[in-house]
Each structure stands twice: as C-alpha cells, then as structure tokens.
Amino acid sequence: MAGNLFLKERGIITLTSSGSSLTASSGAAAATDLDTRAGGNAPDDWAAMFELVCQWATITGIAAGTIVADLYLVPLVDGTNLPDVDLTSGAAYIPYGYKVASFSASKAPTANTNMRFASPTVFLDQPALYRPHIINRSGQAISSAWTLKSISTQGQYS
C-alpha cells in the first residue's frame, strides 16, 4: 500500500542580522546563504517563507500598500561564484528572474519601530545554493538593525 506525503517544518534560519543601513534603492546580500543541496542548511527543502524585520527613522511616503523591499534569491550555480548583480546605493539592480517576493506595508510604519513583513510561499524548484538579496524600495533609508530570516518546508514520506 502506498504511503502518504506530508510537509515537515524546518528550523528558522537567520540569513542576516543587524545589517548595515540601506539607502533608498540600494541593495544588500544576506550574510548567510540558503543552501537547499543535500548537505546545506535547508537540505532538500521544497518551499520557504521569509521574514524581514526593519525600521526607518524617517517614514515620509511609506503608506499602507507601499512595497518596502524586494527579495531575490540569486543562485550560485557552480556552488561558489555569484552572477553579477549591482548593489550600488541609489541604483541597485538584480535581474528580474531572481526576484521571488516583495515585502509590502500592510499599514503605515511608525518611525524607529520594528516592523515585520512576511513573504508569500517561495517555491525552491531545485536543490541549489542561493544568496538572498534585498533591495530597499521604500523611498527612505532602512535603519541598520534589520534582519532577514527564512523557514522552509521539507517533504516527508510515511
């Protein structure tokens, strides 16, 4: 008789903690890669959700519905080398094909107060080494005490 396939929760992975501040339209790479290969920190996982926690000293123009940051998963195809991306302050660019989610404000943030943003489910279509990146789309500088975390899901057969 055939078994059943269940989704199994994995541990939370802190990808970046207390990164440097991000000016408007600048980008940053996570300090820790998301590794879905057999020996990685999310081995053989099928999907993930991401959480961005950040704050702003100035919140002019950040209203409900504003996209505050975009999330990209850039693959290191050979396991070592990152494709070219541009994290230039004020003009960051990462190819659109690597974009996996946007973090949107569900309400206008309060200055100097941590705000939490969660991504929808991101499907990890193949075992690979990914370097998460965010680009600040809020129009204001994100303060330096921001974090990016992931929690992934693995299939379990019984």
Quaternary: single chain
CATH topology category name: Jelly Rolls
**Broad CATH class:** Mainly Beta
Report the end-to-end length measured between terminal Cα atoms.
Answer: 11 Å
Helices, by number, come to 0
What's the number of extended β-strand segments?
Answer: 10
The structural class is mainly beta
Percent in strands: 35-45%
Largest sheet: 5 strands, antiparallel
Helix/strand order = EEEEEEEEEE
User: Helical amount among residues, as a percent range?
Assistant: under 10%
Number of domains: 1
| Outline | globular
Roughly what is the average pLDDT, rounded to an integer? 92
Q: Architecture in CATH?
A: Sandwich
pLDDT < 50 runs, ≥5 residues: none
Based on CA atoms alone, the radius of gyration comes out at 16 Å
Helix-strand layout with pairing:
Layout: E1 5-17, E2 27-29, E3 34-35, E4 47-54, E5 67-75, E6 99-104, E7 115-118, E8 122-123, E9 129-136, E10 147-157
Antiparallel strand pairs: 1-10, 2-9, 3-9, 4-7, 4-8, 4-10, 5-6, 5-9
